[in-house]
Amino acid sequence: MRVTQLELTNFRNIASAVFEPCDGVNLIWGDNAQGKTNLLESIWLFTGCRSFRGAKDTECVGFGGAKAALSLDYFGEGRDQNLLLSIEKTRRFTKNGIKLTSPAKVMGSFLAVVFSPVHLSLIKDGPYERRKFLDAAISQLKPKYALALSGYNKALAQRNILLKDLMYHSELYDTLDVWEEQIAFYAAELMIQRIGYIHRLSTFATEIYGGISGKRETLEITYQEAGSTGGNTKEEIRQGMRDLLRAARKTDLVTGSTSVGPHRDDLLIKINDLSARSYGSQGQQRSAALALKLGEAAVIRSFTGEQPVALLDDVMSELDSFRQNYILNHISDWQVFITCCDPASVQNLQYGKAIRMKNGKII
Predict the structure, then answer these.
(1) Same structural domain for residues 11 and 56?
(2) First vs last Cα of the chain: how many Å apart?
(3) Are residues 99 and 159 in the same domain?
(4) Predicted confidence band at 89 (pLDDT cuts at 50, 70, 90)?
(5) Residue 183 pLDDT
(6) Which helix or strand (DSSP H or E) is residue 298 part of?
(7) Coil/strand/helix, residue 49
(8) What's the CA gap between 139 and 145, in Å, rounded?
């Protein structure tokens, strides 16, 4: 999958731009606040997802304008295709001349992965960020996972409500079995999918990290259960989760919340056998987060047969020259968009295309 042409009108600080990228590395450079990240953001929006910067739709429209208009020509699924995106109060998509009823309808048409400084939270922050990463990545590939996640969260919420009510209504104690059965059912589905996904992700991410670090460091990714079910199959995990929930009832009644289950699990990331979160340097943490995101792209390719476009925003900061060189010149067979501020990166780019952005214009 690759972008052949991008056209923007009134998108953030970009009044008008036409960009024809190369099939390899596209380096977008310039000073801060010139529109580099805006360009990457515009490409990302064609996945059907919301802005990776957390922006509202209306914030993407240029100041004082009524709407933004975006056009993406790309090659995917063996043919040339086009997506149009109009942003006013909401987003409206047209694919190959056919209007789509919602942004969800465009998902899966154009595939991309994005790395930005906010994704350092995968390494630096708590388990919630890593679970969110897992849930989003798996849901994109397996819609049934999203349904199971929704079912799990609803059952979990009901058990937590019941735990608080039991202080005043002890006669409801037996109904814990009902919600714990549902939690165990959905938990087994979530955990078996997470473990399978991490196995695939780890294979790709560890290889990518090895390339970034020049084989000087090793990356290890494992799934860490809040309470071990002791199971390998879905039924074994289901039964193990039932047992964990029952064993935790006394503690959970005191706290009014559920202490075991996938909502408490984590992704353990180590560099050279040490916690990346606790002991990794800034460069190592950035490299690990990047390896996770590029590994995500590789998993998508293994499932769909399509190589997602890689959007790397401010990825070069805090990386030594060796790691920068790898990103610029050794990510092969992918279309990659990289933003940076340092003009020296342009000189170090051996192949590909470099463009400069200034005041919202490509120059």
Answers:
(1) yes
(2) 26
(3) no
(4) confident
(5) 97
(6) helix 282-304
(7) coil
(8) 5
The answer to whether 23 and 335 have CB atoms below 8 angstroms apart is yes
User: In the chain, which ranges are continuous DSSP H helix?
Assistant: 36-44, 121-124, 127-141, 143-165, 176-212, 234-247, 249-255, 276-279, 282-304, 321-329, 344-348
Q: What is the pLDDT of residues 287-332, one digit of tens each?
A: 999 999 999 999 999 999 999 999 999 999 889 899 999 999 988 8
Cβ within 8 Å of residue 254, ≥6 positions away: none
Quote the Cα angle for 298-4-44, to 5°.
Answer: 55
The kind and range of the H/E element at 5 are strand 2-11
pLDDT for residue 297: 94
Q: Is the dihedral of CA 77, 200, 326, 49 positive or negative?
A: positive
What six digits make up the tokens of 70?
């975006």
Amino acid letter, residue 205: A
245, two tokens:
């929930």
What CATH number is associated with residue 267? Answer: 1.20.1050.90
Three-state SS annotation for 196-242:
HHHHHHHHHHHHHHHHHCCCCCCEEEEEECCCCCCCCCHHHHHHHHH
Does residue 70 sit in the same domain as residue 141? no
Instruction: Identify residue 351 by its one-letter amino acid code.
Output: Y
What pLDDT, in 10s, does the model give residues 219-263?
Answer: 999 999 988 888 889 999 999 999 999 999 999 999 999 999 999
CA distance 242 to 180: 6
